[in-house]
Write a sequence for this structure.
């Protein structure tokens, strides 16, 4: 996985650094491995909290300094994507309004939180992303589809009705 690769690369870098510095390569490698494991656990906890709508867990992670915009899964989806996809409006608002995370980050496939909310038919999240956070309805995923296409493809008429006038 991507995280395993990052950890492996970090451990190898730690061994090199250990040869140059005063700490042994074994100590730095173990420390880096623990750091990677901790990052993986934080990532899992943040994404699970966003999916589940666990605002308290997200607040705990943020107050401990572990929640930041670069945190994302192997597909490039961060907590904002997962909150939007699962219809977790309060978590989404916390992540974007309170923590300042971007409202339009893209996954590796080019999907934005708005695209995912449209695909799943979460009208309240779609409204929030557009009206409160200025999410761009014209952005296209790598396959060329916009959030309007995603909503129409999945049969979410209320979302289509909201987005269609904005997509001109």
């Amino acid at each position: 996985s991507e995280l395993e690769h990052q950890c492996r690369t970090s451990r190898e870098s730690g061994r090199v650094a250990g040869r140059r510095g005063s700490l042994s390569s074994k100590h730095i490698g173990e420390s880096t491995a623990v750091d990677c494991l901790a990052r993986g656990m934080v990532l899992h906890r943040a994404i699970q909290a966003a999916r589940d709508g666990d605002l308290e867990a997200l607040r705990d992670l943020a107050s401990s300094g572990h929640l930041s915009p670069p945190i994302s899964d192997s597909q490039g989806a961060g907590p904002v994507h997962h909150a939007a996809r699962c219809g977790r409006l309060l978590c989404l608002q916390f992540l974007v309004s309170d923590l300042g995370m971007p409202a339009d980050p893209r996954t590796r496939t080019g999907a934005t939180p708005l695209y995912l909310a449209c695909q799943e038919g979460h009208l309240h999240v779609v409204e929030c992303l557009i009206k409160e956070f200025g999410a761009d309805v014209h952005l296209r995923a790598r396959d060329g589809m916009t959030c309007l296409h995603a909503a129409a493809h999945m049969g979410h008429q209320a979302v289509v009705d909201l987005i269609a006038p904005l997509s001109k």
Notes: The mean pLDDT is 83. The chain has one domain: 2-167. The CA atoms of residues 148 and 161 lie 9 Å apart. The domain at 2-167 is CATH 1.25.40.20 (Serine Threonine Protein Phosphatase 5, Tetratricopeptide repeat).
